[in-house]
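User: I'm writing a short report section on ligand binding and want a predicted complex to refer to. Could you take this sequence and magnesium ion and write out the structure as tokens? A short remark afterwards would be nice.
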Amino acid sequence: MIGLENISKKYTRGSRTFEVFSNYDLKVNRNELLVLSGRSGSGKSTLLALLGGYLKADEGKAFFDGIDLSSQKDAELSHLHTERIGYLPQSNVMVSELTVLENVMLKSLISGDPSDSEKALLLLDLFGIGDLADRFPHELSGGELRRVSLARLFLSDPDLYLVDEPSGGLDKEATRIVMDYLKERVNDGKTVVVATHDDIVKEYADRILEI
Ligand SMILES: Nc1ncnc2c1ncn2[C@@H]1O[C@H](COP(=O)(O)OP(=O)(O)OP(=O)(O)O)[C@@H](O)[C@H]1O
Ligand SMILES: [Mg+2]
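Assistant: Sure. The structure tokens for the complex follow:
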């Protein structure tokens, strides 16, 4: 199973604590595209990070494929993050010294296997930014950077996609290309959870969960 069981999560700032979730359960079905919706600050990004074990809950468990992420050792968790769980944070993370293409291929550069450059270029082409492959991140617009982040996620092709605001900075056409691609992954047997405010993204949902 993929999901959260009896999760509680507080944030602490100085002497003040703020509880975002208390005894919260969430079950994600295999092969579904689940959309997390809700007002700003409702906890969508927090839920995505908890689901992938990128953020630790104060109480409760996060499961991926029956594995209790909260009890995994760092090395095991990072192996899962490399091989099976893919996470697109709400803001873009780029290595400024690397080109766009290298940023897409980050995981394979780290592991010393650059064999997927062709697929990386195809993904950049699919998103209409193939001609930007040799540029550096500071030379790109916000929407272009979003597409680079998405291409990196899609290149890693995880079993579980956790996607925080995929359409940030994208126009309608680009949003549809991205969501069509995610829907195809679900048809391939993958699981996708997306946090969004975007009505176009919601059109692609198998289920919408209001947070
Ligand atoms: N690191 C943090 N420290 C303190 N409070 C935090 C932290 N991260 C999030 N919060 C608070 O937790 C609540 C949930 O935040 P979260 O980012 O999960 O919301 P969201 O639904 O993703 O919002 P948005 O739609 O604006 O992206 C918010 O009230 C936010 O202020
Ligand atoms: Mg958010």
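A remark for your report: The mean pLDDT is 94. Residues 44-45, 90, 164, 195 surround magnesium ion (ligand 2) (CB under 6 Å).
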